[in-house]
Amino acid sequence: MKLPAALDFARLGRMFRRPAAAVAALAAGLLLAPMSASAWWSHDWSYRKQITLDASPKGADLKADLADVPVLVRLHDGVFKFSDANPDGSDIRFVADDDKTPLKFHVEKFDSVFNLAFVWVQVPRLKAGAPTSLWLYYGNPKAVAEGDARETYGPAQTLVYHFGERGTPAADATGYRNNATSAFQVDESGLIGNAAKFDGQTAIGLPASPSLAVPAGSPLTWSAWIKPAAADQDAVIYALHDGARALVIGLAKGAPYVALADDSGALRQSPAGAALAAGGWHHLALVAAAPASPQATLYVDGEPGPVLAGPLPALAAAASLGGQAGTPATAGFRGGIDELEIAKAALDPATIQLFAGNQGTADKLVQFGGDEAMSTWSSGYVGIILHSVTLDGWVIISILLVMAAVSWIVMVRKAGQIQLVTRANRVFMEMFRSTGGDFGALRHLVGGTAAVAGTEISERTRRLVGNSPLLKLFNAGSEELSQRLNARKTPKNGKAPAVLSEQSIEAIRASVDSTLITETQALNRLMVLLTIAISGGPFIGLLGTVVGVMITFAAVAAAGDVNVNAIAPGIAAALVATVAGLFVAIPALFGYNYLLTRIKEITAQMHVFVDALVTRMAESYNSPDELAELGELAGQ
Fold first, then answer.
1. CA distance 474 to 516
2. What does the alpha-carbon distance between residue 106 and residue 122 come to, in Å, rounded to a whole number?
3. Residue 208: which CATH number?
4. Are residues 193 and 250 in the same domain?
5. What digits encode the pLDDT tens for the residues 400-457?
6. Would you say residue 500 lies in a domain?
7. How many domains, in total, are found in the chain?
8. Within 143-226, where are the H helices?
9. What H or E segment, with its residue span, contains residue 248?
10. 3-state SS, residue 528
11. Measured between alpha carbons, how far is 193 from 204 in angstroms, rounded to an integer?
């Protein structure tokens, strides 16, 4: 995973000398980084919902794999938050399980008043016996409608009527534009939105277009949802007459049948199946197979029913739905018809089963997951919580943010200081060892007046060594040593004896120790601000939470509305103060422990160096022979 630029620690390392910029970048990275747990198709959409198409035996129980099939997705209050979507559904989008591939779809109906919607989605693949997932995205006020009904259906689909119009002929949802030639009565209680209502006296005309023409022996699939008004009616549901040739789908005493007529005009009718119950919706489909096995099979509610042997005749004339021109009024259908579809292909039984199961009221294919919000500081649950924070809460949070900024600046500065001191000490110790205990040579080497063993020190290295506490300890000891040796110059030759008493050694140690304390204090300077953040941050946050809870309960008591929806936002907002306190304390705690450990390491290094320095002085200026020589010089 690629880190945001503000969280690039290599970049932060280069910014140690600009701590304010580093802290600002770090804060921006933490505050603006998306908080979603998984990939999000587009951050312009605030919400999404996972939809599972269950083809297993517990779901739709599909018997074969299907490809590029339109699936109906019903949305209602129980599965979808209409308040989070645009009123016209223009922000609805469907994305494949990979969360990258947009799916073709179109909205048949989106009613944000009664909270009901019907959306058709083209699913690239449904695997028999296994679930298929996709994502429904919504919540983008700037989105424009993109659904396209023509793209939802394949080229074999030549006509689809949703019957969503009012006062106008039914419009074809496919790209063939086979719109009806006459208007229809609207049935408000349709299965999928509105439906067409028939009273037995009128019919809907279908055009005689080339795309609807049926060549002799060609495959064909006709399907529709019907709701008979009477159980035992004799009625024509669909009729296509072309001279003597004909294709008729109807009811005989309430039982569906299919009839064909060839050039002779003799009408052959299939056996009638079981009568359909009145007042309920039933899926009726006719599948005419290819010439290899010519027969017309009528499916009722997804199950195969009456079969009529023989191929389809050539038919290229206009058809009628709900009645038959030139027949008595009793031949007209009484009831409702919804979702008429015609395809120039023989759909397999699994597809018919899918249509009957998915489009009905007892759909077991489409299953909805929970709603997911893209949690940022401006949307989702985080946005709801922040919008509920009261003024007193923002005051507490502002104080904590200032404390957090101060602690981060301290941590960045101290980290840079410790890194610089560590490097300077390492270089100084290398120089100290290279001189072999010759204090004068080391002073000249550090001062740049001489080189040791051919070693030449660059000006950059000298500036670096100047930040070393060990150098300051050495300079303090060297200064004390020079003063004491100069004070012991003999009158005879004016030279200082190379010897010190034990008291002088201890005095030098005391002076060096005072420098050590000064350097240790410099390393620990401002660390107290981290301890204040660690101990004070949570308590200040707790104070904000307590005050927020008190205000929430006072407001609930004043309103007299005691319910979870009234209390929960205030309590959640009050807890933000505690979260802010922990946000201050936890990084400060980690940083303090890390920095304190590094400071202890440097302090221990300084203690060891002081012991080594004083011991080296004692060895060089306090030998027995030198003490005897000092006595002789004193006697003279």
1. 10
2. 9
3. 2.60.120.200
4. yes
5. 999 999 999 999 999 999 999 999 889 888 888 877 666 767 776 766 554 444 455 6
6. no
7. 2
8. 149-152
9. strand 245-252
10. helix
11. 19
Domain that holds residue 102: 46-149+365-374
| Backbone angles phi and psi of 502, in degrees to 5 | -65, -35
Q: Are residues 177 and 227 in the same domain?
A: yes
C-alpha pair distances (Å), 226 with each of 193, 301, 406, 419, 473: 14, 10, 73, 81, 99
Structure tokens at 329: 């009024």
**What spatial distance separates the first Cα and last Cα of the chain, rounded to whole Å?**
83
* DSSP SS3 for 129: coil
* Residue ranges for the chain with pLDDT beneath 70: 1-38, 291-292, 325-330, 375-384, 436-438, 440, 444, 446-457, 487-500, 561-566, 622-636
Residue whose token pair is 């009234």:
566
Q: Name the residue among 166, 239, 223, 173 with its Cα closest to residue 196.
A: 166
Instruction: Please name the residue that has the structure tokens 């989105």.
Output: 143
Pick from 59, 32, 15: which is nearest to 362 by CA?
Answer: 59
pLDDT value at residue 635? 40
In sequence order, what E strands does 41-130 have?
A: 47-54, 66-76, 93-96, 105-111, 116-126
CA distance 285 to 346: 11
Residue written as tokens 């001191």? Answer: 421
- What would the two tokens of residue 440 be? 């004068």
Q: What is the DSSP letter of 375?
A: -
Burial call 185-221: b when 16+ CB within 10 Å, e when fewer = ebbeebbbbbbbbbebebbbbbbbbebbebeebbbbb
The two tokens of residue 259 are: 């009839």
Residue keyed to tokens 């206009």: 318
Q: Rounded distance, CA 497 to CA 13, Å?
A: 51
Q: Report which secondary-structure segment, H or E, holds 473.
A: helix 469-487
Arithmetic mean of pLDDT over the chain: 84
Helix (H) or strand (E) holding 605: helix 564-621
Burial class from Cβ neighbours inside 10 Å (0-12, 13-18, 19+) for residue 66 reads buried
Q: Tell how strand 195-199 and strand 204-206 pair up.
A: unpaired
Rounded to whole angstroms, how far apart are CA atoms 159 and 205?
13
Q: Supply the pTM of this predicted model.
A: 0.62
Do 176 and 244 lie in one domain? The reply is yes
* Radius of gyration of the chain measured on its C-alpha atoms: 44
